[in-house]
Specification:
It is globular and about 55 Å long. With 482 residues, it is mainly alpha-helical. The protein has 16 helices and 18 strands. The strands form seven sheets. A three-stranded antiparallel beta sheet has the order 3-4-5. It has a three-stranded antiparallel beta sheet with strand order 6-7-8. Strands 9-12-13 form a three-stranded antiparallel beta sheet, with no helix packed on it.
């Protein structure tokens, strides 16, 4: 009956009651910059947005050097990823223009294949978070329409979803490059679908993703650690690579966040997370030579590789968030050590920006961090500033703000394009670095949002005990399941 009431309230265009008074929603006018560092980040956002508006409006991503656009899903990815950032920054004019495009230009009924994971975290997550922050029913309507299209990727035979689905025909299939889905992708859609289920009262949205997690929970693991591929036909893990980098990362992040999203009522996710952290400590935590930087290695066929993707820098923030929610204080100690390493991945590079991939010396070099030429690119990624924000919120240590300011200044120094926008870089080993001519949507959706939040001192803006933030930096309210 309560779910039916919620569904009727949503249909009538009103907020379900439990979201009415959330801090940071439409009732809180405390948005916008409050100090010079936040003002600087807003200026950077405006410059990025101007490039997108001038040369890529309504398209997925900006190619700022050539002043063109590129398409991935034909869904205005950059615009939708940026909606909640603009709302938090108090950018009313730009937000209103973007809302108008969502109302009139966003076409979900296209004969186009989309990646379930990317479309869920960026588009579904972006629409839902913007609905929660603004209270504007338009964004919920679009989210429901999208959810009703993405749901056809779920495979109830193997209980592992297909990686891709067509928005118009609803045909779903495995990736073009091979037989397997990616483990992190099929386990990093849960927050968004569970939020959609809760806010609409349509429980089937939650059932789709719960089925996936119930299946993954009973598969064999290595002390809670999982291979990075899983087969959508037979439902089994595939391969022998274990990493907290690409294709593994957000599986672990969403274990903790699923526990937090439903107000710590589902202990199965906490248990899976704690087992995984113990496995990380046992198998993957290593120290470099000569200065003993703590890093997270990879396990390939049972052998350690001293390789760490920049993507792994989400982990300090996740560990700290767990510790702040009553988990073992040793998680915070490890978070602080890893945070220093992620900062050093920036500070030790000539451009003061991190490479995509780093290796850590086992004694073969006097430099702790070794970067191969093919790994030296920088994609404007958010993971380090994400963790800096969470660690600052939890510890209050100003050094995390200072680390973030150094990173911000390096982005500004090396990535700004004179005609609008910011570009990813070919190599952080060169100064000045060359441009890759791509502004990823997550630069506006995540990197600049986290920098803005990091430089703020008002805990009432997105309080971490009221919101859980998805892996694309889209905040969703914590709720108690009915």
């Amino acid at each position: 009956q309560q779910q039916q009431q919620q569904h009727e309230q949503a249909a009538a265009g009103s907020f379900p009651r439990h979201f009415d008074t959330l801090p940071g929603t439409q009732e809180n006018t405390n948005h916008g910059p409050k100090n010079t560092r936040q003002e600087a980040v807003v200026r950077t956002f405006r410059w990025a947005w101007q490039g997108y508006r001038d040369f890529a409006w309504g398209h997925d991503e900006l190619l700022p050097v050539s002043k063109r656009s590129s398409e991935w899903f034909h869904l205005g990815l950059t615009l939708i990823d940026a909606l909640d950032t603009m709302f938090l920054m108090g950018m009313t004019t730009e937000f209103t223009q973007a809302r108008e495009w969502v109302a009139t230009g966003l076409n979900l009924d296209q004969d186009v294949d989309v990646n379930l994971f990317e479309c869920t975290i960026r588009v579904l997550g972006g629409l839902l978070s913007t609905y929660h922050l603004s209270g504007d029913r338009l964004f919920l309507d679009k989210a429901v329409d999208l959810g009703d299209r993405l749901k056809f990727a779920f495979n109830h035979n193997s209980r592992v979803p297909f990686s891709d689905v067509n928005l118009k025909t609803h045909a779903a299939h495995k990736p073009r490059w091979g037989p397997d889905s990616t483990t992190s992708e099929v386990t990093t859609i849960q927050l968004e679908f569970k939020d959609l289920a809760h806010v609409t009262g349509r429980t089937e949205f939650g059932s789709y993703v719960d089925e996936v997690m119930d299946h993954v929970r009973q598969l064999p693991k290595t002390d809670g650690l999982v291979p990075i591929f899983i087969n959508a036909n037979n439902g089994q893990f595939s391969g022998n690579t274990i990493t907290l980098g690409a294709r593994g990362d957000s599986y672990y992040e969403y274990l903790l966040k699923q526990w937090l999203q439903t107000a710590k009522t589902e202990d199965k996710f906490k248990d899976m997370y704690l087992e995984a952290v113990a496995g990380i400590k046992k198998h993957l935590i290593k120290r470099s030579h000569p200065n003993g930087l703590t890093y997270v290695a990879e396990l390939i066929g049972g052998r350690i590789s001293p390789k760490m993707d920049h993507l792994v820098c989400f982990l300090p923030g996740t560990l700290a968030l767990g510790a702040a929610n009553g988990l073992d204080s040793s998680h915070l100690d490890l978070a602080k050590e890893l945070m220093e390493t992620c900062y050093q991945m920036y500070a030790r590079m000539p451009a003061k920006l991190a490479p995509e991939i780093a290796y850590f010396s086992q004694g073969e070099s006097q430099e702790d961090i070794i970067v191969k030429d093919n790994d030296a690119h920088n994609l404007l990624r958010p993971e380090t500033v994400e963790s800096l924000f969470i660690l600052y919120r939890i510890t209050g240590d100003k050094k995390y703000q200072d680390y973030g300011w150094e990173i911000y200044e390096a982005f500004e120094r090396h990535c700004r394009i004179s005609t609008g926008g910011y570009s990813s870089l070919v190599s952080v080993k060169n100064v000045p670095p060359s441009f890759r001519d791509k502004m990823e949507s997550f630069f506006l959706g995540e990197t600049l949002k986290y920098l803005f939040l990091l430089f703020g001192d008002d805990d009432r803006v997105l309080p971490l005990d009221k919101y859980v933030i998805n892996t694309e930096a889209h905040p969703l309210p914590i709720f108690r399941p009915s």
